[in-house]
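Fold it.
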Amino acid sequence: MQLHRGRLIDHIQLVVRDLTASETFYTAVMSVLGIPVLRPGDGYFIADELTVSAADSPTSSGELTGRHHLAFQARDRETVDAFYSAALAHGGRDNGAPGIRAYHPGYYAAFVLDPDGNNIEAVYQGDATRNVPSVTLDF
């Protein structure tokens, strides 16, 4: 069996109640994961494939998106631990402390609820070799 990452999702958008609280939370956890958070316009911010918007942003349709589960890749177990600590220190709520999960051998993850109640996970699934660090688009 072979699993592939990085070729299915173009982007994910969360529409949130409090953009400032979400930006504080996601800036903290993304910095632990090594992902920059950018604010290219009013009413939203982006972190790679993730867009987080206020309901009144031109990037949303005015409706909150509800609860979702997003799992972010971590480079090692220590990064999962740091993600969990940063999330709790910046508005996240515990939804599963770092540890081995029964999903498959070596699955080490932590779960937190973001300010809107989305289930956000950081996971390290064991050693892997990437042929490229990411797919890039030039505009």
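The first strand starts at residue 12 and ends at 16.
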